[in-house]
Design brief:
The protein has about 120 residues and is mainly α. Helix content is about 85%, strand content about 0%. It has four helices and no strands. Helix 1 crosses helix 2 and helix 2 packs antiparallel against helix 4. The longest helix is centred in the first third of the chain and has 53 residues. The two termini are about 25 Å apart.
């Protein structure tokens, strides 16, 4: 017989069953990585927005300080401003963004690898 039904193929060729299991596992992994990549992309966008807001707030505070008279600038101490909190917020937002970007890029990389592997196995 040239064409075997799937039950006959599984009975006569046990490696077909193993191949089907491998394909199922690869397809599941691709699906999981697709979901993880999509989720990490959403988180990355949120962290980018937070970083943009923190940077804008810091820039606004710097501009406000620069617009003060020279006399006021000389008497002003850093602790009298909101700069320490804004700098800290920006640094924290930058770290969160960098971590989210790494996670997204790693998910994307492995998704491509598993997609290629799954397409070669077909």
């Amino acid at each position: 017989r040239l064409f075997l039904d799937s039950a006959s193929a599984l009975h006569h060729f046990p490696f077909v069953s193993i191949l089907i299991t491998i394909m199922s596992t690869l397809e599941q992994k691709v699906e999981q990585l697709t979901e993880a990549t999509t989720a990490s992309e959403v988180v990355l966008a949120e962290k980018e927005s937070k970083l943009t807001s923190a940077s804008a707030a810091l820039d606004k505070a710097k501009t406000k300080l620069k617009s003060l008279s020279p006399e006021a600038q000389q008497t002003l101490q850093v602790n009298d401003t909101e700069l320490p909190e804004l700098i800290s917020a920006k640094m924290s937002a930058q770290e969160e963004y960098d971590e989210a970007k790494k996670r997204f890029e790693m998910n994307q990389k492995y998704l491509l690898i598993f997609k290629e592997k799954a397409s070669r196995e077909k």
